[in-house]
Amino acid sequence: MNVIGIVGSPRKNGNTELLTAHTLRAISEEGFNTELVPLAGLEIKPCNACMACKDEETCTLEDDLFPIYLRMKEADGIIVASPVYFGSATAQIKALLDRVGYISLAHGKPFSGKAGGALVVARRAGKNFTFAQLNYWFQILGFFVPGSTYWNVAVARDKGDVEEDEEGLRTAWNFGKNMAFLIKKLMT
After folding, report:
1. Which helix (H) or strand (E) segment is 155 a member of?
2. For residues 127 and 162, is the Cβ–Cβ distance under 8 A?
3. Is residue 70 within 8 Å of 78, Cβ to Cβ?
4. What are the domain boundaries of the chain?
5. In this predicted model, what pLDDT tens digit does every residue of 66-78 receive, in sequence order?
6. Which of 8, 71, 115, 138 lies at a CB distance of 3.0 to 4.6 Å from 77, suitable for a disulfide?
7. pTM of the model
């Protein structure tokens, strides 16, 4: 059993990565293998709607996306995390979601029936919109989305600030525990 956490922040070791790693620790305590995949430093181009993925389970854009897509297909659970940039998810995570979504919809919806959900970090506003925006992706692809004790959002600005948000950390931890529980139930 494995869960992949994809961090859509362009900053290495930032608050979104810290929150995702925290959530993955909760999941690993339940006997899962976990993998953190930061998009920082990777090239993920936006979808150009060429529709080549309708014919083949691939993408014509040459960048770092397709190996991540294959790892996502192998995972039992997927977490997608983003900081809030101007009230929305980052361009990096949006590009990944668009392309993975197109490929998977054209090839049997391989994520349908898996567990997944979003994590969001913001300085102030935009958390709930971004959380909903990311979770819509999980819904349209047929994932089961576990809840937590609050929305999976945290408050932070400077690197490391998320570690001071006790409620955000607790919510992310509980989300991880609920994801592990759900995956175990789905596999029985």
Report:
1. strand 153-155
2. no
3. no
4. 2-186
5. 999 999 999 999 9
6. 115
7. 0.96
